[in-house]
Amino acid sequence: MAAVVAILPLVGVGVAALTGETAAIPARDIARYALTSAALATLVALATGLVGTLAAWLVVMHRFPGRDIFTWALALPLAAPAFALAYAYADLFDVAGDLRIWMRADLGFDLPFEMRTLPGAAFVLTCAFYPYVYLAMRAAFVNQSAQALEAARALGCTARQVFLRVALPMARPALAAGVALAVMETLADFGAVQFLSVQTLTTGVVRAWFVFGSLTSAAQFALPLLGAAALLLWIERWGRAGRGYESAHARWRPLPVTDLKGVRAALAWLFCFALIAFGLLIPAGWLAIAFLGVTPDWPRLIQAGANSLTLGLMGAGVTVILAGALALGSARTPQLARLASLGYATPGAVMAIGLLVPAALVWRLAPGAAQGFGAGLIMLVYAYAARLMAAALEPIDAGLSRVSPSMVQAARSLGRSPAGAAWSVQLPIARGALLTAGLVVFIDILKELPATLILRPFNFDTLAVIADNYARDERLANAGWPALLIVLIALPPVVWLTRKIAASRPGAPA
Amino acid sequence: MNDAPALIVRSLAKAYGGRPAVIDANLRLQPGQITCLLGPSGCGKSTLLRLVAGLETPDAGEIEAGGRLLSGPGGVVAPEVRGVGLVFQDYALFPHMTALQNVAFGLSDLPRKARQERAQAMLDQVRLGARAGAWPHTLSGGEQQRVALARALARRPEILLLDEPFSGLDAHLKGEVRLSLTEALRAAGATVLVVTHDAREALLMADHLVLMHAGRIIQSGVPGDCYLDPVSPDAARLLGEANLIEAVVSGGVARTAFGEASAADLPDGPAVLMVRPEGLRLDASGAPAQVAQVRFGGGYHEVQLEAAGQRAQMHAAGDPPGQGAAVAVRIDPALARVFPQAAVTV
Questions:
Q1: Chain A: nearest CA to B66, how far in angstroms?
Q2: Do A40 and A257 form a contact (C-beta atoms < 8 A)?
Q3: pTM of structure
Q4: Which tens digits make up the pLDDT trace of B133-172?
């Protein structure tokens, strides 16, 4: 059942693309959008791969001032939605902005770039998404075998050669998985690229729906995205299958950590700090400095904040319940979990368009039954659950793996039904994992924009939606508050999650 | 004592992906008795246990307990309502519950207070009353096993199953654990089926012994009978060291290089004589043999004998013969059995 939740919208996309009224947008445009998406994805893949890997290698294999804090702080940019970064950087580096005017006048030179371009968007998305690569690579490096590294040193490799010839090849699956996640997010992003005027397939999906009102066209933009999603998922799977590289069975020993001194320590510190600065501190700081002076429309902001929280909690609750059921059931049918993970690779806009198809069917069959406010909310929560099922599934699966089959069987032999055993044994033991899953989903929903835009009930605003509205109306100053609020709400759970991740790995500093 | 068996297993069969694990198993547990199911690893004994517990569904056959059909052609009773308790090899204590909560887990039909009292009484019975509030990971292996036992017994199961209760324990702990386990089981008056591959523990613990080999139950009976009168070389080897020596039967007597034994019911021709190491005796009037090796084994010496190109092992009490010495041996008929050659599987 839970797997069907994730698959239904994807079937919807296919149906919509192949049937319905003819497209209002020529195929050439779709190709152009697709090319832009591909270029953007390539740039972000290269940049996040490089930056995330380097940061993970520095933090895991070296000792320098601040390393213990960087270990978890490097993941903090996950709290900032990409569109918030886009607003901040677009404003900060605006050609007519204060910074550039001052530079031109007083320093006599101009920055040689422009944010509202493809490279600009790639920069913003790299700042936002490098933590996916960082976390995957950190886990891979922490779990690598100290013996293999020491053997390489004993065979005459320098520290750099150890990294290039042993550690990096061993971590290649993790790199593929991390970069695949970053690219998935890049393809799914709407708020940032839309604001930076870069036309990707996802903006195409949303425009086709809002501007042309054509479900068929929207679905046609969505189809290549779905194809890319399937490909990325396959890459990510391949990355996981490669976990055999990790030395799960080798006896664990502390990794040979290098002490960095002087200039090298300063450079390492600077690199890590710069990442956090570009990913979180500068954009959040600039939004605060530039826009907090603007008095927001308080009632609207508070209402949107409440809506965001409600949606986040509802979505997290529903998703965790479904993912929990799926995880408990998947012991018998592992294929279901694999199907559900296709939803995670699917951009939210595509998911929303896909949902409109079955919804339209319901509307036609029972007019009035599926209309109105409640129905819209249900659709939205459904879209979140379908999209984020896999993200919730992973920690829950890991948590449940701590329950041995004999514990479940013991509960059965002590008088519990299968459901009773799940309730009294499996779920309590996986409690922490359920919380983790809920927070991951909550944070993602908070930052979600395109699906919310398409599916939300009339006049139902979330923080992300009003930020986007203001930004599109060229009232960027007003977008600062809601964007910052998202960061502020998301930050505590992100801190909690990243600190937990840092503490749970065997190689983490005590 | 009631004579009706507490559990009857009839023609039970189970295969995994075409590979038979349990073949035509028949078993009876007498009420209040400890039955040990002994077999090498992979012989299907754990599968048989799981079939009785209801954790696996048989392909054929019936399981009946106290006159109630638990499993048969008509259907299968779910494990939670079988009245069958189970102590797992890894104990399977719930890590998120204290010892007391673990024991109280299966008593959810009792009111809260009664549940606590009964759980505490069960812990007292296994001499862990003082550790009621302890978390499982703070208990030693033996203590964890006793909590698991108390947890299974708390529901007063008609039948209690124990899966390899000695496998996780150090050799020097086994005796102690066996004694306390037996004591607790006797006190509970439970009908018990113990699955183990440890011949020594099975012999010492069982009222009734069941031998299993390659999916089949090959012998059952009182431990002493099984030991002294195995039905086949396989059964003999399951219960301890056994020499298999080439023999020739003629006129109801089996002759070997190490002596002879009676084989009244076998036809003339080649056969195999099985004799326990303690069934070979030094005897001046016996058959000549050479001492190939002598090793000190604690309460006895292990002597490798060689005669006519065959080897046999003897346990010698007292002063052993020297290495290379020429000795004379005979076979104690009470500790030897003769089988037709076809009975040897290896």
A1: 17
A2: no
A3: 0.76
A4: 999 989 988 889 899 999 999 988 989 999 998 887 777 8
